[in-house]
């Protein structure tokens, strides 16, 4: 199976092509950025596809991170994935950023529970907890930092995500300490691709995964314009 993976959910713009039969990435590229994803993504995809020496019609599916993440970043990646999938006549699948963060740790066959954490601002985090084998312990949610820490009752965890250090800095000194802290600005695009290969397109649509109402909202039309469109 040939997978094009896309990630623009957080502080990176990334794309990769995975060949599951060969068990390797044919091409990948990542640029760390807090803004500018819209301008960077399509040229990056073109370079990755050229490096992999593939036509879009040769792909089996397109995988994209669907959140939690920035409102603008998610729209960029999901729109690109859905547009390319429609043009190529291939399915598009969506993967959460929390699961993509966790996959890299679960893939190392470690026994510690994994807490994926993303900064939701205002002293809150998006988080999810899975066991070392990947089974879910605490479903994805948003909570104040201290409540997210209190939800970890499964032993010394492995913290991963762009809020991993935020949790580590607030971690109680009198409890089991994290076994590792991986403060990554964005998930590994390779794991986005592997999760995309395993996902069921019918149950993992390429649409935004919001755990709260987005901070950014489309601009409100002025009254005259609203009247013209009504």
UniProtKB/TrEMBL annotation:
GO molecular function, one term: tRNA N(6)-L-threonylcarbamoyladenine synthase activity
Disordered: annotated span: 206-230
EC number(s) per entry: 2.3.1.234
Top EC group: transferase
Keywords: Acyltransferase, Transferase
Residue ranges occupied by any Gcp-like domain in the UniProt entry: 33-128
Domain of life, per lineage: Bacteria
Name of the molecule in the record: tRNA (Adenosine(37)-N6)-threonylcarbamoyltransferase complex dimerization subunit type 1 TsaB
